[in-house]
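Try this one yourself first.
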């Protein structure tokens, strides 16, 4: 059984959700109703929250939140199956409550993050934490001795190439050289 979400983690989830206007949010695992409510409280009217729970007990705990919140979609299926089903979609914020950490497809979750999106995970095992830390697409923050991981996906902006302007620079040199 889960303990209530710590106030600071719920506050962080609320702020991260508020920072994603019209965002697509995903809560994966057996998140506590308090944590899901915090995400919903931070969301604006254009945002949508998908909650995937892997157990019947988790679904029963979240039923009251889902009943009260129109922007929330509640799914009951294994994490790997859901992540495979949404292979063409990207999320602006992913919250992972890793009670069954072995079944969380961490690499596929990173693939589901939009550029600049955030991953907030609690209960991440050391192996998965190492996997996330070694992923070059992420910037990772993990306070020492804490079970919470916060990661941001780096933007994959294409490299820019200077185009044009060389004629203008040459013309500028000719003009600055004066008549002659």
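Now uncover the answer:
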């Amino acid at each position: 059984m889960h303990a209530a979400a710590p106030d600071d983690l719920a506050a962080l989830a609320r702020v991260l959700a508020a920072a994603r206007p019209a965002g697509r949010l995903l809560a994966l695992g057996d998140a506590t109703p308090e944590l899901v409510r915090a995400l919903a409280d931070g969301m604006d009217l254009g945002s949508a929250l998908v909650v995937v729970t892997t157990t019947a007990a988790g679904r029963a705990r979240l039923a009251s939140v889902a009943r009260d919140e129109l922007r929330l979609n509640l799914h009951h299926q294994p994490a790997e199956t859901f992540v495979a089903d949404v292979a063409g979609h990207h999320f602006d914020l992913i919250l992972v409550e890793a009670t069954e950490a072995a079944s969380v497809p961490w690499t596929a979750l990173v693939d589901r993050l939009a550029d600049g999106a955030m991953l907030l995970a609690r209960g991440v095992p050391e192996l998965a934490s190492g996997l996330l830390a070694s992923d070059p697409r992420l910037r990772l923050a993990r306070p020492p001795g804490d079970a919470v991981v916060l990661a941001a996906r780096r933007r994959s902006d294409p490299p820019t190439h200077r185009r044009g302007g060389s004629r203008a620079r040459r013309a500028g040199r000719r003009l600055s050289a004066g008549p002659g």
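Discussion: The first strand starts at residue 24 and ends at 29. The two ends are 86 Å apart (CA to CA).
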